[in-house]
Design brief:
Layout: E1 2-3, H1 17-20, E2 28-29, H2 46-60, E3 65-70, H3 72-83, E4 88-94, H4 105-120, H5 123-134, H6 141-152, H7 156-168, E5 182-187, H8 195-204, E6 209-213, H9 220-223, H10 225-237
Parallel strand pairs: 1-2, 1-3, 3-4, 4-5, 5-6
Length: 239
């Protein structure tokens, strides 16, 4: 099961489908409030998103799943492993956090800019800013354009709800309860989540595997898919 990042959708996993579809049944989910999944009534939290994912697995009659989550999706996967451990066979956390804090002054300024645009500008402007942070290099133009299109589809209200859910998320004291095999994967050049924050996540989960992917930012599965896929495949093969 692949879970995408904030403001995006299941299309994030374009580079993983051909690499894994022959050996696995793949479930690609639009999280609540994102693209084809409507924003539910009431307050959106990471826990309610995890409950929705768990309910989907139950409705489909799926066995325990290998859950792979990027950023927000990693937080949802982590919450699912804590709330419904019987649903999670293994957990892969990609540039995810137990509690969000900016990677540094530049990331904090970019967050302020994002909030300002969310309040004052069209979603296309928000999408362009976020996509530029994900894919800043000239040779990443195609990735930037695809991300900007995807992010622009997210309604403003849903993006706000997702951002608030992520800001409230804090499971630092619960990480010792994660019992499933866990891979923590980090982009070496991630400008959104600091490397030490992700490494502390790995240290707190007993027996977890910690892997840093070189030449990769926050969207590791997209900007270095070969290394991402090889690392994930090696991890899953042992499970």
């Amino acid at each position: 099961m692949f879970l995408h990042g904030l403001g995006s959708c299941a299309d994030d996993w374009t580079w993983q489908v051909p690499a894994f579809e022959r050996d696995h049944r793949l479930l690609l989910v639009d999280l609540p409030g994102h693209y084809r999944s409507p924003l539910p009534a009431g307050r959106l939290t990471v826990d309610t998103m995890a409950d929705a994912v768990g309910a989907l697995l139950a409705r489909l009659g799926e066995p325990p799943a290998h859950v792979v989550g990027l950023s927000l999706g990693g937080c949802v996967g982590l919450a699912l492993a804590l709330r419904e451990p019987e649903r999670v066979r293994s957990l892969t956390l990609v540039n995810a956090v137990a509690h969000l804090r900016p990677a540094g002054p530049t990331a904090a300024l970019r967050l302020v800019a994002r909030l300002t645009l969310l309040a004052t500008a069209p979603m296309s402007a928000v999408a362009a800013l976020v996509a530029r942070g994900l894919f800043p290099r000239p040779e990443q133009a195609a990735l930037y354009e695809a991300a900007a299109r995807s992010l622009a589809r997210t309604p403003r209200r849903a993006y706000w709800a997702g951002l608030r859910a992520l800001a409230r998320f804090d499971v630092r004291t619960a990480l010792t309860r994660v019992r499933c095999p866990t891979l923590v994967m980090a982009g070496a050049d991630d400008a959104t989540v600091a490397l030490d924050v992700k490494e502390s996540l790995a240290r707190a989960i007993a027996g977890s595997r910690w892997v840093v992917i070189p030449d990769s930012g926050h969207a590791t599965n997209a900007d270095n898919p070969d290394a991402f896929n090889a690392t994930l495949r090696e991890f899953l093969t042992a499970r």
